[in-house]
Amino acid sequence: MPKSVIVTGFGSFSCYDENPSWQSVLRLSEFKLENVDLQIHCIPVIYKEADKFVDRVWEIADPDLMMHVGVSGLLKESIAIEEQAHNFGYCEKDILGHVPVNNCVSANYSSVLKTECPVESIVNSLNACYFDSNLKFHVSRDPGRYLCGYTYFKSLIHNTQKTIFVHVPPFSSFVSDETVANALRSIILSSTFY
To answer: 69: part of which helix (H) or strand (E)?
Structure first.
């Protein structure tokens, strides 16, 4: 039976008219993934929309893997797999000029939630597979305090065992949507999730 995998990217914001996360997810959807029922979604860079989407998709779909993908301008030729997300500190306004109530995801949870996915093993495996590439992978413990971290925490509330967040770099002469999509495919096909 195929595994249910949902992969999300984000819509435009700030200097990203076309968000590299969503462009990479779109490209990923063109690939054939053996034994994977892939669904892709674009989340607008709006806190309330992220809230509604995450709650709805976990309630309706309950996927085998939820992979959120976001862009980070701090990355150049590397991809970060996030180990945890933070509940508090969301002071940066979304594209509508809003912030979450009390600048947090949920008052009912602790300050940090961690994924139970074996992030370090995944990173080590990817670096071994991509050893002759300019592209490197690393573990990150800070997905930021904007929509990426917010969405990740929200999803971790629903399921810490099936949720992962991947930060990708802006596109450059070294990193394209195809490069990132191939990396995302490698993560999905990793046997550590199923």
So the answer is: strand 65-71
Tokens 């992030």 appear where? Answer: 119
In the chain, what are the domains?
3-193 (3.40.630.20)
Q: Cα separation of 92 and 73, whole Å?
A: 16
Phi, psi of 93 (to 5 degrees): -70, 145
92-150 per-position pLDDT tens digit: 999 999 999 999 999 999 999 999 999 999 999 999 998 878 899 999 999 999 999 99
Q: Are 164 and 67 in contact (CB under 8 A)?
A: yes
- pTM across the whole model: 0.96
How do residues 153-183 score in pLDDT, each as one tens digit?
Answer: 999 999 999 999 999 999 998 899 999 999 9
User: b/e for 102-130, b at 16 or more Cβ within 10 A?
Assistant: eebbeeeeeeebebebebeebbebbeeeb
